[in-house]
Amino acid sequence: MIYSFKGHIPVIHESSFVHPLAAVTGNVIIGRNCYIGPGAAIRGDWGEIVLEDGVNVQENCTVHMFPGKSIVLKEGAHVGHGAVIHGANLGRNCLVGMNSVIMDDSEIGDECIVGAMSFVKAESKFVKRQLIVGNPAKAIKEVSDEMIEWKTAGTRLYQQLPTDCHASLREVEPLRSIPENRPVQEDFYKTLEQFKRNE
């Protein structure tokens, strides 16, 4: 669902995928190889929202701001299921964990990781490579090379997903019984602990 608002029409690169059950409104620019999941709302009615290349905004996320503000989610930013980004800027290759809330005029630095269910209060500023957790959220340590390597690998899956969705996602009628030749899905994800052990 793509909507114009007061003459602003979203600009979405053809390589990106916006799920039909997502809503993108107004002054929104979405770069290359971005994934926008079902239930996501990216609302550029009161200001500009820019998603640089390789950003993913997963299911049931909200990206919005107060009037007169503009925000950028920089290249490779990764916004987990159910998160809210309200008037905040996200740095390159950062991760916002599931159901986190990032409030107005906050700055999440490059390669930061915000833990799931964290609350980043308005006007918070975090320099690059911080692990940010809690309510209110605080930086508790620096993100290691190993952690950012794991995060980057996970984001690559989402950067491949638009191509896969364009190629294979189709609305269908459900099957009424399990077929004998039901395909087996590939196991290509490692948890951080598995990644550390190189399993």
UniProtKB/TrEMBL annotation:
<protein>
    <submittedName>
        <fullName>Gamma carbonic anhydrase family protein</fullName>
    </submittedName>
</protein>
<dbReference type="InterPro" id="IPR001451">
    <property type="entry name" value="Hexapep"/>
</dbReference>
<dbReference type="InterPro" id="IPR011004">
    <property type="entry name" value="Trimer_LpxA-like_sf"/>
</dbReference>
<dbReference type="Pfam" id="PF00132">
    <property type="entry name" value="Hexapep"/>
</dbReference>
<dbReference type="InterPro" id="IPR050484">
    <property type="entry name" value="Transf_Hexapept/Carb_Anhydrase"/>
</dbReference>
